[in-house]
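Annotated sample (chain length 649).
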Amino acid sequence: MAQISLTFPDGNARDYAAGITPADVAADISKSLAKKAISATVNGAHWDLAWPIEDDAQIAINTMKDEEPALELIRHDLAHIMARAVQEIWPDVKVTIGPVIENGWYYDFDRAEPFTPEDLGEIEKKMREIINKRDPVRTEVWSRADAIAHYEKTGEPYKVELVNAIPDDGQPIRMYWHGDWQDLCRGPHLQHTGQVPADAFKLMRVSGAYWRGDSNNTQLQRIYGVAFQNKEELRKYMNFLEEAEKRDHRRLGREMDLFHMQEEAPGQIFWHPNGWTIYTELQDYMRRQQRKGGYVEVNTPQVVDRKLWEASGHWDKYQEHMFIVEVDEEHAREKAVNALKPMNCPCHVQIFNQGLKSYRDLPLRMAEFGSCNRYEPSGALHGIMRVRGFTQDDGHIFCREDQIEDETKRFIAFLSEIYRDLGFEEFKVKFSDRPETRAGSDDIWDRAEEALKSATIAAGCEFTLNPGEGAFYGPKLEFVLTDAIGRDWQCGTHQVDFVLPERLDATYIGSDGAKHRPVMLHRATLGSFERFIGILIEEHAGKLPFWLAPRQVVVASIISEADDYVHEVVNALRDAGVRAEADTRNEKINYKVREHSLGKVPVILAIGAREVEDRTVTVRRLGEKQTAVTSLAEIVSELGQSATPPDLL
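Output written by the structure step:
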């Protein structure tokens, strides 16, 4: 019998008969390991304990202490256990497909009646019964014909279709049994159902789905679940979801009266006065920062002829995301085809191209608060985080190739200062290189990637690789913020582009008197204003920094006799640059405090008879139970200072 050599993580090797399974390898090492084993890693691939190994290989036996394989197996087995539980409760339900996803899994079912929250509880109970049975998990390799015949006999058309969709390339068709329940699956799986932690999973929700994602196919019901290695990790995750729900910008947007969205304008935002205050304060801050950074501000058209988008490459590479506008020009033989601009870069090149530019004019830093429109599928829209109409704090730096390093350093420093001002002390950087669909030659991409990578290293900025995620015209840096509850948000970008200046014929006169192509650096600090405001709202749970809060102070009367003094206080605060408003309604002060606290007003000043007499105010700050009494002059001075944006202090 042929022998193979298996090498273990410690460098030791053992010889075995070809066809040995990882389960037998684990048993050869120790009875204890055989009992604890859940899978193997063979030559870097995740391997079921029952799969044979035919050739020399590197092997590691995995246990529940190995987080990545353990979580994959727990979630994968739970998908099968849930499908089995559903069919044990409702035998007529047809199962379709159920993959592992981030934090858990889902499974799609064909059932006439909709699942209810009560059903989810019943399914969870049945799943725990199956886990406690410790039913063995086994696998077999079947031929395509046998698999189809089996599923036709058992009346499972979805499985027949799945088998037919598997490429006929010699890959095995694997069948898995969890006890007596069977499913088509690529594996791997655990040794028995009892290896799944019974107290570390939860079914979350039901949603609609279509078979194979096609809306022309059968409507299915999708049940989502989450699972972890132990009860404590599940508890942490549920607490995280609870905290995320409290911070949800859509919920806070309603409570703070910031914005709304409606069916007549999908993916577009109706900003209310409070929300627009945040928007304009942030825009004013960015405008001042850009002026200090040496940028000139421009503004370019919303609707541009397709000819420009064809020349830039967007028509070919990006058209599916563009809103096309056809206009019957008077007396024209054919319709004029335009597009709402999805980005600002081609228009900025048009401004650069007006008049001759000299090498002495470079770098030319151009900025625009550019309103853009991109078609996003309705299913991808998410509050103000993912929209179809948005404004970028966009900028383009036209420079010589030898200026890329200095301009990259300068931009990273510029971005770092702004993020600090907005409450983010740290950020991560991803380096995104060439995508499959791109413009420009490999030589151009080699130059661009090397230039950006060298400049980033020279700036002392560590980065991780993000393969294939660059723009179609050049590589980019992505600046990622981590919020208060650990979520990552990609915001700013910095891109090196040799392609668009070539395609749009941008030139400057060099010191040698000849024409040269500039390099175009695309950069955005916040990215989309809309998305960044959503991030700020969730980061601060609505309790925005005082200078950015839309309603900074409410001065509330306790008695009607205090109304005149209330208005005097409001006027004094407004004169000091504070956004202040009066609340003299005939309501109890506790009611007013609760209402304005829900609206996330940072400071409430209460005024009764004593405050009128002493010319003081009682100060209540958001999130604090204690109040303090201070003089009018002191509070006006303090809040006036707090209302000043950080770049003006």
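Annotation: The longest strand covers residues 389-399.
Annotation: The mean pLDDT is 93.
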